[in-house]
Design a protein that fits this description.
The complex is a heterotrimer of chains A (319), B (329) and C (330). Chain A has 319 residues and is an all-alpha fold. Chain A contains 12 helices and no strands. The chains are: A mainly alpha (319), B mainly alpha (329), C alpha/beta (330).
Amino acid sequence: MLAFISRSIIQKIITLFFVSVVSFLIIHLAPGKPSQVDPLNPKFTPEVVERFRKEFHLDKPLHVQYLYFYRDLFTGQTVSWKDNQSVLNKIWERFLNSLPLFIVGTILTWTLSFPIGIRSAIFRGHIYDRSTTFFSYLMISIPGFFFAYILIIFVVTRFHVPVIGMETFGLGDAPIPHVLMDRIWHLLLPSILGATGGIAVLSRYVRSQMLEVEGQEYIRTAKAKGLPPELVHYKHALRNALLPFVTMFGLILPGLIGGSVIIESIFSWPGMGRMAYEAILARDYPVILTVNFVSAVLVLVGTFISDILYLVVDPRIRL
Amino acid sequence: MNLEKKTSQPDFQLERPMAPKSSQIKEFWLVFSNNRLAIGGMIIFILFFCSALLGLFLTSGPDPIFDPAQIRLQEKLRPPLAKANLDTLRPEEVPRMGIYFFGTDDLGRDVFARMLQGAWVSLTVGFVAVGIAILIGIFMGGIAGYFGQHYLGAVSIDTLIMRIVDIMLCFPSFFLILTVVALLPASIYNIMIVIGLTSWMGTTRFVRAEFLSLREQDFVVAARALGVNNFRIIFRHMMPNAIAPVLVSATIGIATAILTEAGLSFLGFGVPPPHATWGNILSDGKRFIFDAPWLTFIPGIAILIVVLSFNLFGEGLRDSLNPKLRQRR
Amino acid sequence: MANKTDLISVNKLKVNFRNNTEIARAVDGVSYTVRREETVCLVGESGCGKTVSALSILGLIDSPPGEIVSGEILFAGKNLLKLGEQELQRIRGNHISMVFQEPLTSLNPVFTIGDQITEAIRIHKVIAPDELYERCIQLLKDVGITAPQERFNDYPHQLSGGQRQRVMIAMALACDPELMIADEPTTALDVTVQAQILQLLKSLQRSRSMSVLYITHDLGVVANIADRVYVMYAGIIVEQAYTYQLFHHPRHPYTQGLLASLPNLSKRGQRLYSIPGTVPNPAHKPPGCPFHPRCPFAIDNCRIQCPEMCNYGNEHLARCPVLYEKNPDI
């Protein structure tokens, strides 16, 4: 067990190292040097650019730049080129903004997918199964921003509530329930949008997993014992079908960063995705690299948690 | 024994048991044609393909039948099926049949012509990107699955390739595509290549898995025992057995690529003008969503239908090609 | 022997499997009876419908694609095919239980064997927890599991193949059923383990005075444990008899072929016989007697009409008038 964990951690650290190298290379080998930040801007005189290059070690060879960058990152000294603020602080601030979206979205996804998927597996081929199948594909296929606009038009014209941004400005001295409702209205649409795709994919996966398990022989054994269908489905089948999802639970971590770029831009939500997008627009390399690094860390931590969870829940795996 | 003598007599003729002969394709079609959603998907898939091809002919050339680039500022934001105002237009500006089937955009360009042109561009982006991804995926997966046990220095080829896959999977894919596309000069080719280069990992994984199980199977072992060379084993014996899931993921991959391109367009990093894609028609139209909703809804619904048909078609293929599911039906 | 009362009788059972395009008549009018305290074997090649006919007793045919078309299954005066799902549940595992072929896949991998054995008792009987535990340990002892207390909390993958099948049998015995259906319980096991399991089943049948319906393709097993035998071919019963009679005086060419293809010492140095041809596809059975394409004795009438059961006395019936007419001596 301990050997497995330490081997896994070492492997993940090596992977992380290569990820950091690759992302560094992608950014620095792309045409358009970081030092050419907006050459048309009159503030960027050759002297300023020169000082800028010195300050960020851009005059050094690439591998030295790499070392400097990650030294700064690990000591928390990395600063954004755009506003000279600490990148880690910036990310933390935006992360707190993204968190409610992420939490509500995840809860919606995980609480809705399972009942939907299990039901459509049990009633396979019935009208319920067919309609959820079609609806899932519809949700998978719809371009997210198009769907967002449809929802925005619907909600704005129907309920006359503002939905763009995190809150309505100028509500400072409004009563608390009012402010709360305002926050919830703002949270609702983006988290529903973030969840729909996930619900569609996950419920399909739950369904196929359930069907796979329902075809197994031990289900027949359970039926032959005279168990009522509820016990057969929800004890014998579900317990086996759930195993792979335990591992997927670790994989929702990276969702903290990815996937929300478009939604956060539509709703002007000042979260991580939007910050990443703004950083790309501004060619703010320290921010881009740090976001990339953090999300790689999240992916690796997520898979690590998955592996450990699998060990815990599947009696067949013992180390 | 009596029975044994009887069957060994020359005049005993075994009557053939009547087992029906049906080819694999026929059997596949039997299952597939029963899946109405998949059939619908396939029909739309074919229609889309034809209209994209047709669109290429109708909108290109020096004097196209539908001109997607013709600007008529006096006719901007006309609703769908509006008649062209013949008094204000010069004769060469008048749209075909004097009608704007899908209306006009903010520059007075014929949305119908732009959609026709965009169909071809979207299709190319999808096909080329997925083509790149599939080629890399088959190559890497095939090598990892077939030559995996060979060692390069300290690590086996299999470990090496799978670690590369792991590294690639660490990047948040849309964010990575966005970063690279934003850093590179805007061009349709860069978008295809970048989408292709960032989406080959899935194919690699299952081609490898498929090859790993195939190479242990008796027909491959037999072929090797007969002295068939590696090249022939891979392409003649193993590939045909591994190609079905690749086709399925390609179909679904095209759908994903079209969606990704639309997402990039929306953020302003899509296929640059003068090419019209459904993604950039939609993202241009969003500014007029209350005044001219058709500019958003026509391309949006078109993308939805096409992507949906690709997904349904792909899933139908998967169900019909998967022998395990086929038995359970 | 013949005075024992019938426990279960299957009458003219027909089960179809429906595909997208074809209908397979997997079980095509099968009748058999199991009496109290006897072991009956259902013999046939794979795909002849023996498992399907047994599964329909418990109502475990998946529908779709399966469909019980007609017939009746009488158990304790009730027609099982007419019972509702809940009434069937009360019979399954309680009065009629089943042991399956593949012990590894037939046990749920994520529950302990103790849990899986006691489950049936908890469902069907009212019982105190400590008594439940005692009973489970006793069952495990009865089926010959050593150190049952330690095994109680093991998972199926921690047991060997033979032990798993013993657990399956313990599970089937849990509620003291009147009938146990054993569907090729030894096929997946090593030969030595097979013999042990057969021995176990035989002694359990006697000590618990239950009936066993044993499904197999192995005539060696039949000779070992069966009181009476039904031979199935392509969805119909072709011959039924007491075991001794069947082995010494087979009246159907198919049975004869099966017996002829058994290896034995007197045939040393000879080529082993095999029945020519293959089993027909259940969706495309030949008209007339389903065995006629492979039968050396087939006459014209066999191709047109499937013969009725002919009675050869002492409950020996065979669906072939031709063989006896031609060779009354065997």
